[in-house]
Amino acid sequence: MRAATPDDAAVFEQFECGASGNLWDVEVERQVQDKLTEWTFRGTAAAQQDSQALLVLTQPTGEAVAIAAYERYGKLGIGAERFEAVRLYALAVANEWQGRTFDDGERVSHVLMSAVLGDISDRYPGHRVFGRVHKDNVRSLALLRAFEFVVYAPTSGDDYVYVTTQ
Predict the structure, then answer these.
(1) Rounded-to-integer distance, Cα 9 and Cα 66, Å
(2) DSSP code of 106?
(3) Domains in the chain, ordered, with CATH?
(4) CB neighbours (10 Å) of residue 62?
(5) CA–CA gap between residue 48 and residue 27 (Å, rounded)
(6) What is the pLDDT of residues 129-150, one digit of tens each?
């Protein structure tokens, strides 16, 4: 696991994770390919929100296995509760690695999530993590629940749910 650099723009642009054709997978793929370099390194959001992109790579090929991105968000409120938060911007596993494990038996998605949560915890102690996930994205919701995220019911007419750490 390593932090991305501006030199990874080509890696982002070529990254594919939307082979399922599901709306949510295609949306994440487009975010990574079209927006991640700008969001992480160049835009005003990068400077203001302290955005961070991380990569998991296989060696020696340098093939991108998974990409995660997050940003410091500031205060977030759920009901009457207010807390410092970090937003997951993208969490994606490349098509050919989805559902697979590394040689040590660990699932790629779990290695990615562990690394991201560890990095966030190191950089922003005490901050909670949140994100938005399509309500029908069962794989992502299962991963988040495995890491003890709380899933909040969607608001009326919304196809996305909010998730937070406790």
Answers:
(1) 14
(2) -
(3) 2-127 (3.40.630.30)
(4) 10
(5) 24
(6) 999 999 999 999 999 999 999 9
